[in-house]
Amino acid sequence: MNVAVDQSVEWLNARARHIEAVLERMLPAEGAVPARLHQAMRYAVLGGGKRVRAALVYAAGYACAGQQIASNLSPDSTARRKHLDLALDLAASSVELVHAYSLVHDDLPCMDDDTLRRGKPTLHVKFDEATALLAGDALQPLAFDLLAQMPVDAALIVQATQVLARAAGSLGMAGGQAIDLESVGKTLSREQLQCMHVLKTGALLSASVTLGGLAAAMTPAQKHALDAYASAMGLAFQVVDDVLDVTADTAQLGKTPGKDAAANKPTYVSLMGLQGAQDFAGELHAQALEAIAPLGESGELLAGLADFIVLRNH
Amino acid sequence: MNVAVDQSVEWLNARARHIEAVLERMLPAEGAVPARLHQAMRYAVLGGGKRVRAALVYAAGYACAGQQIASNLSPDSTARRKHLDLALDLAASSVELVHAYSLVHDDLPCMDDDTLRRGKPTLHVKFDEATALLAGDALQPLAFDLLAQMPVDAALIVQATQVLARAAGSLGMAGGQAIDLESVGKTLSREQLQCMHVLKTGALLSASVTLGGLAAAMTPAQKHALDAYASAMGLAFQVVDDVLDVTADTAQLGKTPGKDAAANKPTYVSLMGLQGAQDFAGELHAQALEAIAPLGESGELLAGLADFIVLRNH
User: Fold this and answer.
1) CA nearest neighbour of B61 among B152, B144, B124, B149
2) Which among A39, A171, A241, B54 is most buried, taking Cβ atoms within 10 Å?
3) Residue B131's closest chain A neighbor by CA?
4) What is the dihedral of CA A229, A231, A149, A37, to 10 degrees?
């Protein structure tokens, strides 16, 4: 990796520590009744993950706010910066909660039946199935509660609510999971595989970018740039995941590698070959960078994240 | 039952048919990809239930709007009425979706492991466990999406989002389920039992009343009346459910009676005896009617629902 990527990784790690502390505060306390449920929710959310979704929220928000300041579209002030930071903390928490809930339900015996996640026992193994089900069920509304607390115009909150709801729902993440279930053992076309991943992983990654923009009251031109960036990166993330599933080992991944191939699930590698999938990730990377060119220097963090997502080894 | 209750039942049945038609439109089409997931969501939501939560939304909304018109607080017009009806349809749909998702997850093998619901096979029996899990997961964000579409001030939508999120979350319905799980085989005090039911069933019933009020832009005085009505009725509903669990038969209930007693779950009947529970329901009924007295004639539908909830036999 080059120096720019190293800097992105440093920023990403610092953001991951920051969002961890924010989530600590946003989640109900461990001792609050019902304590076991709250402990399970905290176990599901805290202590791990690259926090790519949260990072996308911050990077998109700072890109929009930075450009607005640079072009004097709005005055800078300490109060404004505080509001922006809080809005981004809330939006970033909300996507991390939805992501965490989806992993908990995805790991359940009736789904992927996984026992290891981020190097730790999965929630239903550590607690029990019923508690894992309920913890996931309770994380989802908490995400909407947090969005509703953003210190921005109510109209922006309403938009953000719809963006998150659609990214999580049957035409987003949950829909992608359903297609994934049905696709085991089948050969999918590139279009079908892409449709599944756009829903399953892309929708929430893409929503993260949009929520960052909404928290920073993005302009229509900024929305245009972010939308194109988001669709390219949402897909790139999954292509790289498929590549890593065959090239990385358990220690790097924190989960069992080769599992998708073993389950006979279609992946970009099974479809395009390893080199083909790597090339495709490179193309998407270029598209993402092109999309945010109009944001100028303010898009630096987004560019760094694009580098990281495509060049990461875990 | 008396004539007033008969009229309430008639209104409730008409509302149930109305919300059924509304939900038909609000849910994704059966053929929309992923079709199996959408079929499961529709199976979970459509074709049954008393729709008490939806009825509470409409009754609360019309009570507030009616009183506003009577006291000339706001002008009546066809457009205003259309907006009110649409806002109430969306709010009523959202609580029915959350209720339906909770039943689907509650019926899963790792929870109550129920095979019969409203006289039909439960969702995981009719489809499969993974699809039931995902259908529930997808119904929840759809509820928030619908709330966000209410044709009311954005600030009211934000409030409604928080009301629904908290009613559904770990300090509401999901929290009540978690306490219920932990309480099997234990003897709870009246306070502990009440806390569990206030969360498990009361929170969403209570939220239904509040959402109806928000959809009709309730005044602070109206909010005060609705809040007191909602807490009394939220509890009364569960007390009556416990009574019916020992007095009604399968045909009336549409589910297996005596199941809670068999599972050694604490109920109001096991705690207070049958007569004690019936008396308690009567007290709560009186409290609810007193709470809405300030609403005058506009509170008629709410009063009728209180009668129905306490005097029903299924």
Assistant:
1) B152
2) B54
3) A178
4) -130
Q: Assign A121 to helix, strand or coil.
A: strand
Alpha helices in chain B (DSSP H): 3-26, 35-45, 52-70, 78-107, 123-126, 129-148, 154-168, 173-183, 190-197, 203-215, 220-247, 250-253, 259-262, 268-291, 300-311
How confident is the model over A238-275, as pLDDT tens digits? 899 889 988 876 555 555 555 655 566 678 898 899 99
What sign does the dihedral B150-A100-A182-A248 (CA atoms) show? Answer: positive
Here the tokens at position B19 are 């919300």
Taking the Cβ of residue A188 and every Cβ of chain B, the question of whether any pair is shorter than 8 Å is answered with no
Work out the percent of chain A whose per-residue pLDDT is above 70. 91
Nearest CB to B34 within list A34, A142, A179: A179
Query: pLDDT value at position B249?
Result: 65
Please count the other Cβ atoms lying within 10 Å of the Cβ belonging to residue B242.
Answer: 26
Q: Which of B62, B52, B33 is nearest to B100 (CA)?
A: B52
B79 in contact with chain A, both atoms CB, cutoff 8 A: no
Q: Which domain holds residue A211?
A: 3-311
Distance from CA of A9 to the nearest CA of B (A): 33
Cβ pairs bridging A and B (under 8 Å): 165
Of A36, A142, A174, Cβ closest to residue B178: A36
Tally of structural domains, chain B: 1
* Residue A219 · residue A73 · CB < 8 Å: yes
Whether residue B182 lies within 8 A of chain A, CB to CB, comes out as yes
Q: Domain holding B208: CATH number? A: 1.10.600.10
CB contact under 8 A, A157 and B161: yes
pLDDT of the residue at B1: 47
Cβ B234 vs Cβ B79: under 8 Å? no
| pLDDT confidence of residue A1 | 47
Q: Could you read off the pLDDT of B165-221 as tens digits, one per residue?
A: 999 999 999 999 999 888 877 777 878 888 888 899 999 999 999 999 999 999 999
pLDDT reading at A159 higher than 50: yes
Could you say which residues from 95 to 134 on chain A have a Cβ atom under 8 Å away from some Cβ of chain B?
101-102, 105, 108, 110-111, 128-131, 133-134
Q: Which of A131, A170, A181 sits opposite B178 (nearest CB)?
A: A131
Q: What average pLDDT score do residues A217-235 get?
A: 96
Strand partners, B117: B120
